[in-house]
Amino acid sequence: MQKEYSGKPVFSGIAIGKISIYHKKESVVKREKIDDAEAEIKRYHAASDEAKKQLGELHDKALKEVGEANAAVFEVHQMMLDDLDYQESVENIIRTQGVNAEFAVATTGDNFSEMFANMDDEYMRGRAADVKDISNRVVGILNGAGAGGFTATEPSILVADDLAPSETVQLDKSLVLSFVTKGGSTNSHTAILARTMNIPALIGVDFNEEGLEGRLGIVDGYEGKFIIDPDEDVLTSYKEKKAEEDEKRRLLQELKGKPNITKDGHEINVYANIGSVKDIADVLTNDAGGIGLFRSEFLYLGCDDYPSEEDQFRAYKTVAENMAGKKVIIRTLDIGADKQVDYFHLDHEDNPAMGFRAIRICLKRPEIFKTQLRALYRASFYGNISIMFPMIISVDEVRKIKEIIKEVKAELDEEKLPYKDCELGIMVETPAAVWMSEELAKEVDFFSIGTNDLTQYTLACDRQNAKLEDFADSHHPAVLREIEYTIKNGHKGGAWVGICGELGADTSLTETFLRMGVDELSVSPSRVLAVRDAIRNTDLSVGQ
Amino acid sequence: MKEFKYTITDPQGIHARPAGLFVKAAAGFPCKVTISKDGREADAKRILGVMSLGIKQGMEITVTCDGEKEDEAAEALEKFLKENL
Lengths: 544, 85
Hints:
The complex is a heterodimer.
Chain A: E1 3-6, E2 8-11, E3 14-21, H1 37-82, H2 84-97, H3 101-117, H4 122-142, E4 156-160, H5 165-170, E5 176-181, H6 189-197, E6 201-203, E7 216-220, E8 225-228, H7 232-255, E9 269-274, H8 280-285, E10 291-295, H9 309-322, E11 327-331, H10 359-364, H11 366-380, E12 384-389, H12 395-414, E13 423-428, H13 431-435, H14 437-443, E14 446-449, H15 451-459, H16 477-492, E15 496-499, H17 510-516, E16 520-523, H18 528-536
Parallel strand pairs in A: 3-4, 4-5, 5-6, 9-10, 9-16, 10-11, 11-12, 12-13, 13-14, 14-15, 15-16
Antiparallel strand pairs in A: 1-8, 2-6, 3-7, 7-8
Helix pairs in contact in A: 1-2, 1-4, 1-6, 2-3, 3-4, 7-18, 9-11, 11-12, 14-16
Chain B: E1 2-7, H1 16-27, E2 32-37, E3 40-43, H2 47-52, E4 60-66, H3 70-84
InterPro entries (chain B): HPr, HPr-like, HPr-like_sf
Protein name (chain B): HPr family phosphocarrier protein
Organism (chain B): Candidatus Weimeria bifida
């Protein structure tokens, strides 16, 4: 019978495995009268010294496993044991009450722990656990208690009431898939160490440990779930998620920093497609070589009025700077009657996909277009920006665009605003652009093939219509032929050619595109490394 | 007696690790070193006491060195605070 508990995740990830319960050291402290206070005090100091020695060993072990900053906690623990207030408290209790060192240390530990627990700072409250931990260690040495531990013989999900920093570090990592605790806080050393160890972990889970040992469990560090005895379908679903996660991690580890080069030495660019400034982090994490499509619509959507030149300039400048010299290809506004932009005052259209949209709006309303172009050129000064125009169907459009750009540059020169010259390109996403690619290549620096719309227009199939699934073959030879033709013509006219539509991320076509001579593939950030993997596994010198 | 004031800039305030290093540094001098905040005082050579002051970012502390090598101590501790907190 599946049982599910929820808790706070302190590190994400998925773990599937047998559950094992961590048993704490038994250190029941009994208050006992003693005769020789000074001898008892000596006993305490001996145990304290032994504890410091153990902490030193833990520090060294932690240094290797979790790095200096996180291992430092054990040095702090040693200092706490050395603290004169702490020592004086223990000695005082032994002398004035005539009681055993175990009791004196436990009481001192409790008192200081309580002091920290009552502080108003969350970080300081977490230190209460530190004081408890060192006191328990000394008491454990004094009464010779057995070590805590767990009995797993295979990598398991460790469950416990709570885990002290020393316990976490002492765990045999090869046997721990994840841990789940009833207590703990996100700032506790346990959480910090879990994050450094890359183990999914949950805290604050109110589970019942009876009969839990050896049962199958799932820890979902994304949703904060702890599932015991999962149902068949739940288990299958999580196994899939875990496989995806493992694959992602593998790719990241193996491929980050490596070039997008085939076995026979042919290299191309792999960039990322994004739609907002906050996606830049993903671009960099996934090691994309640049941004092959930055959809600028986010600046226009969800607003009551046109974004100002300043608003746009700031956004483009941020992207340019954050990409630190890597290419950023920004597409000018690609809005149509199907998008929610009342202030554009676009008439209702029966066929918005083929309507008054994108570059057509820009050419008919040059004020809007110029504002965007001014912002783009001004931002170009701060990085490496290229500009791309959507929905192009003729050479005439491109010539008109270049006239407007001339005006923009003249204005900026007059106003003495700095800018850099930008590479100019067009989206090839209409059959007309494909057919005119030879002429268009002479007018621009690059093409980027928008396979989503190109497929729609070429196959005359509405992208949004689910009924057409059987007809709208994304690998349709007509589309592939268009791509090949475009790449050939692009190169003839001196333009480089990339693909920014979804087809670019289809790794079953990577070899095909490479053979066609594509220069760049721009995909969603999470697909960058998978595409790189496909490129690196291709050998163009071998057959076909 | 040498005294100096310092305002904490570290967003975590005086947390465990730098507290430990500060205490270590203070303990290296023979003079008495006191750290105080809002009238509450603690012996700078005792880590639990220093941490119990709960010193956070933006708070001003006063460090007092009294005794042998008080000048050296004040200089070294002020430098430590500037570099680490």
